[in-house]
Amino acid sequence: MSTRSVRRGVHPIILALLAVLVALSLLPSAAQAGHAPEAPARLRAVHAVPDFGAVDIYVNGNKVLGGVTFFAVSPYLEVPEGRYKVQVIPAGESLSNPSLFVINRSYYLKSGRDYTLVARGSVASGRVGPTLLRDDNREPAAGNARVRAAHFSPNAPAVDIFINGEKAIEHLRFRRATGYLEVPAGTYKVGIAPAGGTASDIIYTADLTLEPGKVYTAWANGLLGVKDNDAQAFKVTPSVDADFAPMVKQARVRAIHAVPDIAGSPVDVYANGAKLVTFDFFKVTDYLTVPAGEYDIRVVLAGGDPQTEAVIQANVKVEGGKDYSIIASGTNGDFCATVLEDDNTLPAAGKARVRAAHFSPDAPAVDIFINGARAIENLSFTEATGYLEVPAGTYEVGIAPAGGDPIFSASLSVEAGKVYTAWANGLLGGTGAKAFTVTPSVDAMAR
Questions:
Q1: Are residues 331 and 395 in the same domain?
Q2: Residue-wise burial string across 174-188, b where 16 or more C-beta atoms lie within 10 A, e elsewhere
Q3: Mean pLDDT of the chain
Q4: pTM for the full predicted model
């Protein structure tokens, strides 16, 4: 998820869950509350007071979360239906001193419902207290996510929220949360402006990536006017409230920059709005592991806007358990993206596996000679051969126009236990970095 948020390490609230197991055993039982144990209520806590230190959280006199810092969203705790006294005090202090209570309230939690208790406000304003939100963690439809926004920045005015430049939510006040929106999974540009403002009045922007099958809350928190690098600064922090996404098999993808026209000009590669890599001609990236699925791939000159300045755009589907190469290629403004399925099965002992791929945009279909003998015929631009398993060693490779004699030759050394692709790239009439050449990549190796 990308939205200027920080992925935290092992937080004290996680460690405190061990204490929760003990504490919950002291709470009223489902039988005492008169409800079936299979439908508990669920409660979590959020520390949203930016100018207050760590806190301890007690339920019915038992500490269930300790050392919770700003801005932390705890996991849900399952409890039987019933009434619970929730008390929040500075970390390490005693319940015997009620003057220190940040929160001291009782709540009735109903069976089968989810709740978020937010400690909100600011010490500076003298207004610190609790807000109990009712959460709706129903599963979204296939391919969708569900999301709501919650305003807990104590010095921010009521706000309007813009999604991809359009006003989507109006006049969201402090201590309030919106209803849930069900939207297609993807990356959205979120802008926040004072209520009644236009897009030119936006004071904060963030990219919010929503994954299919998940339910989110986007929490506006912190203080306006604080430097961006300060932990108390205004920001939007997303939380994943529910995850219905099935376990998805992973695929591996890599990118190849084979557009000689822009040799020396790096490009950015985006997938579903998220930048994967920046690299130059002729480079082959390492494989990146991604969930199987469909991806909107866009290639732009480094620093460009993938929404408006994409040189190449393609929809790519990858299957779990497979490897893929995505090649940006072409010349003279005629650019394309080609997807090759890679077979990185390791060779037999003492051998290597190798294929050839033709990505020289001004070269005709070619024949490939190995040690003087024609081995591959009529390989066209954007095509790759199957894999050959050969003894490790050095081979003289010649490339000729289909049916003709070699016009290019190179030595190719392959080592035992490795899988290679020999990439024909560059321009027949090019010079320097743009000149026609064959560049081998090591795709897999025995470990």
A1: no
A2: bbebbebbeeebbbb
A3: 87
A4: 0.52
Which tens digits make up the pLDDT trace of 274-301? 888 898 999 999 898 888 889 999 999 9
Domain end point (choices 209, 226, 243)? 243
Is residue 10 scored above 70 in pLDDT?
no
**C-alpha angle 393-367-423 in degrees, rounded to nearest 5:** 60
Q: Which residues pair with 151 in a beta bridge?
A: 176, 220
Q: Please name the residue that has the structure tokens 């409660």.
A: 43
Average pLDDT over residues 375-392: 96
Range of the domain at 142: 12-243
Q: Same domain, yes or no, for 223 and 293?
A: no
Q: What is the dihedral of CA 243, 248, 251, 255, to 10 degrees?
A: -30
Check which CATH number belongs to the domain holding 354 and give it.
2.60.40.10
CA distances from 161 to 31, 194, 412 (A): 45, 9, 58
The pair phi, psi for residue 137, each rounded to 5°, is: -100, 40
Q: Identify the H or E element spanning 289.
A: strand 288-291
Are residues 149 and 265 located together in one domain of the fold? Answer: no
